[in-house]
């Protein structure tokens, strides 16, 4: 029940204490949980940009719907997905996988040839829709790991992607921003959501068994 208890503890924090900072060790654990997320074909087609700099966050505030969280949190995690699939990216991942597992070179060629053909038949827009979905798996695991550490978080889609992409120069990395995750410690007096009771879906059962 430990995971359930951790998830019952967490909520989308609405106000952070700017004087409290999350340790480097805990940030690295949160990032590692996202890195271990299962992704389609094991390609891990997203990256996390960890923003601690107050100066950088000040440049990002203009595009945030919750600027106070952006300003006061300890760290900002930006989940950014590949803008497209390429043969080079696929080969890079699988060559490293083969090397790390000490397997014969070309061990996965038949599979990589298949997925290269699949992605070649799709548009770059379709690629990004798919890679963005994979990043959300990482976001979920990062939120869970933070909860286990009793670190407060807020997942956010309410931001101007263009501003984030430009400030962080994501295009040069072949990435586009997908979601944000504010990380820090709540301001108990200002976080209006913290004392509220968690509510189950009132309309229907969440799981339907047949």
Quick take:
With 210 residues, this protein is α+β, with helices and mostly antiparallel strands. 43% of the residues lie in helices and 14% in strands. The protein has a 4-stranded antiparallel β-sheet with strand order 1-2-4-3, with helices on both faces.
What does this molecule look like?
- The protein is an alpha+beta fold.
- The chain has 8 helices and 4 strands, in the order H-H-E-H-H-E-H-H-H-E-H-E.
- It has helices at 2-9, 24-35, 54-60, 67-72, 87-100, 109-120, 124-148, 161-167; strands at residues 46-51, 75-82, 152-156, 175-184.
- The protein has a 4-stranded antiparallel beta sheet, sandwiched between helices.
- Helix 2 packs across helix 7.
- The protein is globular, with a radius of gyration of 19 Å.
- It starts with a helix and ends in a 26-residue tail after the last strand.
Using the alpha-carbon principal axes, give the shape: globular
Strand line-up across the major sheet: 1-2-4-3
Distance between the termini: 25 Å
Helix content: 40-55%
Largest sheet: 4 strands, antiparallel
**Mean pLDDT score, rounded?**
93
**Total number of beta strands:** 4
Rg, please? 19 Å
Fold topology:
Blueprint lengths: L1 H8 L14 H12 L10 E6 L2 H7 L6 H6 L2 E8 L4 H14 L8 H12 L3 H25 L3 E5 L4 H7 L7 E10 L26
Antiparallel strand pairs: 1-2, 2-4, 3-4
